Amino acid sequence: MPNLIAIVGRPNVGKSALFNRIVKKRIAIVHDQPGVTRDRVSVEAEWHGRPFTLVDTGGIGLLRGEKSTDVILRAAVEQVDIAIEAANVIILVVNVQEGIVPLDREVAQRLRQSGKPILIAVNKVDNFNAEKDLVDFAQLGFDQLIPVSAIHGNGIEDLMDTAMALLPPPAPDEVPVPGDAPTPEPPEPAAGAEPAVTDSHKLTPRKFPLKIAIVGRPNVGKSSIINALTHSQRVIVSPIPGTTRDAIDVPFEVETEGVRQKYILIDTAGMRKTRRVDDTVEFFSVQRAEESIIRSDITVLVIDAEAGITEQDKKIADTIVEHRRACIIVLNKWDLFDAKVREAREEEIEKRNQKVRTEGQSKELTTLSEFGSWVQEKLFFLDYAPVIFTSAKTGFHLDRLLEAVRYVAAQLQQKIPTSILNRTLRDAMEHRQPVSEAGHHLKFYYATQVRLAPPTFLLFVNRDELFSDQYKKFLSGEMRKAFGYEGCPIVLAPKARPKSIEPVRKPKPAHGKSAHGRPARKFGKPGKFPGKFPGVTPGKRRAKKPTRSQGAPRGSNRAKGRR
Ligand SMILES: Nc1nc2c(ncn2[C@@H]2O[C@H](COP(=O)(O)OP(=O)(O)OP(=O)(O)O)[C@@H](O)[C@H]2O)c(=O)[nH]1
Ligand SMILES: [Mg+2]
């Protein structure tokens, strides 16, 4: 990665505060407690038009030769080493109020060995008095000493000008083009808010890289999954719950079936019940995990297969639904469960052979698909999410996870032609009318798609109160049968309209073909997203269902009884 500037230093010298100051927004957690940032946090930023990547590292908390039983701290040291290896310029942060402590000397020595351009940011120079102590830090053996106050924002210009000057000369294609600033993302609708009338940008597919937030309870293997997918040790893994304290963006590029795709994986802190959250740091961590759900395009909910589905898993699932995120459920640590399932399966077969199974005796879950339906039953409100069984440890089914991500991403690009949308909804409503206590009947005028992600449809009808949650669920189900939308929430927004609006006419068959006869490829863009789970043909002419081998993604529209 070119233009990489890393911020290093012992714990609690103000690295995160400095990091935030530079990127001018709150990116990393700042808290007055040693070792709060335990992972690298990186951000793409710009200084006077020149792009660079800024990396905040965990503090180096050990003296050389000192033994550590704290795995988190040890892993943080490794993270700093990775940052040193990758960085073009390193900013060592020290604290003027504490002077040089032995650990600073250790860190400095470590950095001198790296041979990289080093700057010292002498932090907490909040007044003139402190400035005279600056020269003391020359003992660390570096020429560039820059006084800063991360909290007050002093000295940042100087620091960054010096750091940028130490970067390698810009490549010809790196010269900034005026007006080439990235376009801001369109704002998301607030949870529960009614969609506005169509804006064209809401119907423009999201640009890659899509953001994939990996969320779940502490210790379920979120960081392990990211490391396994990226074949690296980018984020810290440890058996201690609560290892990840911040949301960390990990760029990730993958080639599946000849198509290269870029994603940003977001590692997040494990989310515990709020009343069990120990301190404010954890509180912020959980908040950041929630923010990650909001800024993600797809959320991957990781569940510990061994622990099963807990109340907290349901709560996280609830948050995902509340923010209307596309979702994939991952049951991780399957390696720990696999043997037991195999055993149960063998017993089941044995019983079947001996025909000893009595009627009514509860049947053990022995196949992945049975487990899949069990998970979906438990998380019934998130039943649109496919379920994948993985092991970050053995790599089991991580390819399926990638496949599901690619497939769900393709679903989020679908724009349903209005005529087919209207035909599908009309058929569904003719098939089942909502029940009205006062004997009112539903009249459907017209529907239109107002947003791609989450797929949102505005339905003009005579009475919006006829749309109970149950009726919406039924209609969403019919739309899933027609258009797929596996992994995506479907948002239906009925709007009452005066009677003067004529109901839309049934579309005439075009060129001898019924409206239903349109090929599915119109929707799914398989050229861009070829995969095993193609878009489903609208109406009754559904595409042949994909083969659901064990653990393949499944959606809500599968008849549960068959599994
Ligand atoms: N057997 C087994 N162990 C796993 C698997 N995935 C992760 N682990 C272990 O589970 C522990 C927690 O893994 P992490 O990746 O740190 O979990 P996390 O969800 O990121 O945890 P926090 O950041 O603390 O929320 C580590 O000891 C991992 O080695 C798996 O698929 N199988
Ligand atoms: Mg983690």
Annotation keywords:
563 residues; alpha/beta; Rossmann fold; GMP Synthetase, Chain A, domain 3; 14 helices; 17% strand; globular; disordered C terminus
Describe the structure.
- This protein is of the alpha/beta class and about 575 residues long.
- The chain has three domains: about 170 residues, 3-Layer(aba) Sandwich (Rossmann fold); about 210 residues, 3-Layer(aba) Sandwich (Rossmann fold); about 130 residues, 2-Layer Sandwich (GMP Synthetase, Chain A, domain 3), CATH 3.30.300.
- Helices cover about 30% and strands about 15% of the residues.
- The strands form three sheets. The chain has a six-stranded mixed sheet with strand order 2-3-1-4-5-6, sandwiched between helices.
- Helix 4 links the parallel strand 5 and strand 6.
- Helix 12 packs across helix 13.
- It is globular, with a radius of gyration of 28 Å.
- The C terminus is likely disordered.
- The site of guanosine-5'-triphosphate has 24 residues, from helix 6 and helix 9.
CATH hierarchy, class of the largest domain: Alpha Beta
Count of the domains: 3
What is the CATH superfamily of the largest domain? Answer: P-loop containing nucleotide triphosphate hydrolases
Strand content: 15-25%
Helix count, DSSP H or I runs of 4 or more residues: 14
Task: Tell me the total number of β-strands.
Answer: 15
The quaternary state of the protein chains shown equals single chain
CATH topology of the largest domain: Rossmann fold
Estimate percent helicity.
Answer: 25-40%
- Largest beta sheet, briefly? 6 strands, mixed
**Biggest sheet: strands side by side, in what order?**
2-3-1-4-5-6
Low-confidence stretches: 175-198, 505-563
- What distance lies between the first and last C-alpha atoms, to the nearest angstrom? 47 Å
Label the structural class: alpha/beta
Mean residue pLDDT? 75
